[in-house]
Design a protein that fits this description.
Blueprint (H helix, E strand, L loop, with lengths): L9 E6 L3 H6 L7 E5 L9 H14 L6 E5 L8 H10 L4 E4 L5 H13 L7 E6 L2 H5 L1 H6 L6 E6 L1 H8 L11 H13 L3 E4 L8 H14 L3 E4 L5 H7 L4 H15 L8 E4 L2 E4 H21 L1
Parallel strand pairs: 1-2, 1-8, 2-3, 3-4, 4-5, 5-6, 6-7, 7-8
Antiparallel strand pairs: 9-10
Length: 293
């Protein structure tokens, strides 16, 4: 399964210091589990949490779930040890906070090389500061030839730095969200939406998932298992979308349509540019079914 076609509908943060939560996570229907050593862990517990995460990853049992370690910043006293542990742990990626420039990406790449990260080990980064938004194009461009594959939006940190209100429509963050998606798509990266804080507000959560999907995000970061079902459903291609995509693929494969750039498929005007998206939808649907199987 290619990295871009891997489902990341639900990316659930799990506190690195909570061994019981990590145990329960083995049975949760999350596409991705992010074992968090940063925000979820108090300074005095950082060392123990790193050991707990390393032990959990060594024990395994997470099945087909994608495992990611969120490290502390590279300039903190814990960052380099977190990164080295993640690189040797068997996880798929490390998630680095507070990236603000291409230079930050280059430093993280060099640190991963020094740590002996295996081939295919990915770098995910948090987009969570005003400076990151202003530098988003250069940050995305730094992915060329590097292990950087994924943007994760840190909307809580953006709200703090913006001094903005977290309104249901996320008005204050529309530019940041849209620019991040644009940069990710321009450079072939995955884009994951930020968290929704009001765990008990299920309608609000669903609405924000739908907004993130409509903006083009691949999935959403989550803070509670109760959010998994809705995220998995909303960020998956609908049955109607999959059937239409298959019809588009079949129509362009029909020898009778050879050489045609525009077709009518199920009453919809369809161009060759729609064929690529149709193939992506079908590939994602197949990947989701493979994870569930």
């Amino acid at each position: 399964m290619s990295s871009l076609h891997r489902p990341r509908r639900s990316c659930l943060y799990m506190p690195g210091a909570n061994a019981r939560a990590q145990e329960k996570a083995r049975d949760l229907p999350a596409d991705t589990l992010i074992l968090d050593l940063e925000d979820a862990v108090a300074p005095e517990a950082k060392e123990d949490a790193r050991g707990a995460v390393a032990a959990a990853l060594a024990a395994g049992g997470y099945g087909k779930r994608e495992m990611v370690v969120r490290m502390n910043g590279l300039d903190t006293e814990w960052g380099r040890a977190d990164l080295a542990m993640a690189a040797a742990s068997g996880a798929a990626a490390v998630l680095a906070p507070k990236v603000t420039s291409a230079r930050d990406v280059e430093r993280l790449e060099a640190a991963l090389k020094s740590a002996g990260a295996p081939e295919g080990f990915a770098l995910w980064i948090m987009i969570e500061t005003p400076l990151a938004i202003l530098n988003i194009r250069e940050i995305a461009a730094a992915s060329i030839g590097s292990p950087l594959t994924t943007f994760v939006m840190g909307t809580n940190d953006l709200a703090k730095d913006y001094r903005a209100r977290m309104t249901p429509d996320r008005l204050a963050f529309q530019a940041a969200l849209q620019l991040s998606v644009a940069a990710a798509r321009a450079y072939g990266l995955v884009a994951i939406d930020g968290v929704y804080n009001d765990i008990k507000n299920e309608d609000g959560f669903r609405a924000e998932c739908e907004q993130g999907r409509d903006l083009g995000f691949d999935g959403k970061t989550l803070i509670h298992p109760s959010q998994l079902e809705d995220a998995n459903r909303i960020f998956a291609p609908s049955g109607h979308d999959v059937e239409q995509a298959k019809a588009v693929i079949e129509a362009f494969a029909d020898p009778a349509n050879a050489g045609k750039g525009v077709l009518k498929v199920n009453g919809k005007m369809t161009e060759l540019l729609h064929l690529e998206e149709a193939r992506r939808i079908v590939a994602m649907d197949e990947a989701i079914r493979a994870l569930a199987g």
